[in-house]
Amino acid sequence: MKRHLLSKNKLVGAVFVAGLVFSNLANAQVFKYGTKVYKASDLSTADQQTLFEIDNEEYQKRIALVQQAALNVYLTEEAKKAGKTKADLEATLLAVPEPTDKQASDWFEQNKTRIPPGYTLDKVAGEIKNLLREQGQREKREALFTKLKAEGKLVVLLKEPEAPLVQVDTKDLPMRGSAKAKVTVVEFADYQCPHCKMVAPTLDELVKKHPDKVKLVFMDYPIKGASSELVAQGAYCAGEQGKFWEFHDLAFEKQQDLASNDAATNLAKSLKLDESKFASCLQGPAARARVAKSKAEGDRLGVTGTPAIYIGGRRIKSHDLAELEKVVQKAAGK
Question: What is the pTM of this model?
């Protein structure tokens, strides 16, 4: 496959062209039952999302292969110009400093939970250094690939699959930003999810930077057990006293304390809510129903983990502010 791609990639002026184009997934025919032909868009929303994720995994594999193929073309051409071998030029361009003992030690400390018991730093230091060296070379390749695209020398023609367009039921749910904002960002999250805590400030910044364009809707998707459900219910009850977002922000700030059965009550006390009303709400059916409804909506959409973010009705993977802004611009039609 790689040899075939290399034979088809040719230097035309200053542009590399790499072939293979994805079809529109929504219009793809997936099966025939009786006399009816079913398209991907005829599947359940959850199945459409799963099909997209499978397609996207294949796309990521293809883009990695095409990226390497394009770089091989570049290296071959540049080596010829410089009178060097491709291997020598590649070694020069992708050279990275030898990882230090401290870098290996730091990596070991940061990833202890992923290392099997009984493995000491002395035993795995060599493997860690190899990993760091490979990571550095990957970053060099990415930087070179990005440079070639920025200079207009490289054009990749693989078409990235687009997530299915869905309608998310956000009626009566907490919102940040202007109700008149054109683009709705929906986040399904669990207050005990570390990645949800990390992305929360980014989403908040997105709304602050684009107050007239973006509104953020938060939807509970508790996946870490009864304590997560209780905190989610507590957020609803805080909202009944006009303090949903204050509770939301404080819950993520105090994430390390949320496993306690008293976590929701303690947060309410910190916010000086009416404790009697809060306790009554927390024990009542309305809070449970709200959280259950939000969770069910996530299930319908095919959410399996958190955070799950939708912009303009499409699921997106990136949590980078600049990338989110690009998606917002596209959803807003600008």
Answer: 0.75
